[in-house]
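Moderator note: this is an archived Q&A kept for reference. The question asked for a predicted structure of one protein chain; the sequence and the answer are reproduced below.
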Amino acid sequence: MTLAGDMSAAAAEVLAAHPEAGVAFGDRHRRWIEYRPEPRPGLSLADLAPGPRKAAHRLLATALSPAAFAQAMAVVALEEVLDRREDGRRGRHSEDYRVIVFGTPGDDEWAWRFEGHHLSVSMTIADGRVSPAPVFLGANPARVDALGRPVLRPLGVEEDLGRELLLSLSAGARRVAVVGDVAPYDIRTATHPRSEPIAPPGVARADLRPGERALLDQLVALYLGRLPDELAATLDPAGGDVHFAWEGPPQPGTRHYYRIQADDLVIEYDNTTEDGNHAHTVLRRPRGEFGGDILAAHHAGEPHTG
């Protein structure tokens, strides 16, 4: 079965048991990302019987690589850890995630989203093609330790590899890459679509030494690797016009931020607290997210491949 077929089968299983998880494709909430602990549309996992709940998890798994699915499940589990740290004041729980289907699975155009606190994955399907993004993963706490060693650190590779790239840069390249002494409170794109590049862009890949370029390419591949291979390949900038920027100090345990920008790709990482233990990461597409690329082709009646 194709990737679109796998998504359709899992979404149809959810809707068969809970039609209320479905809304019209034109619903105003389709172009939406909300990773904060705020109200959101969709059917809660808490309201799903075991069978449909497992189908909802299968639906999410179709959009993610095995490693990214493991990260997503760790993010979900961290709600219980955070709730305990807060003494239950905000009533957080690991079933407070919602699935919503826009349109009818298998139709010429439809979409779905799996979302909750620190997790938002949106997929759009047109003519059997899948368009990914936004894909958001966060973690609070970003790190849980025992005896000074990490027990759980879902976004540790993203943090470590970004810092490794920064510290590998020559003095001149680092002066261009570091565009701010203080990290922003949150990712720059936040919950809003953004078509214009984030300024300043930072250091260009073309201006890096071979080893530095290899680390930047590895960091891009890490984020694209959150997706199934066939989707990741469609977003790969393939060494094109790619920029890397950093804000804040380089040390672990501090507020820090980095971003990568390419033609139709924005990657952001932000550690949002003074102790550097609350991370946000996102993969976005200024022109293509929420299916903007494939829907335009579909409405124009253009031929496509894949």
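Archived answer notes: The two ends are 14 Å apart (CA to CA).
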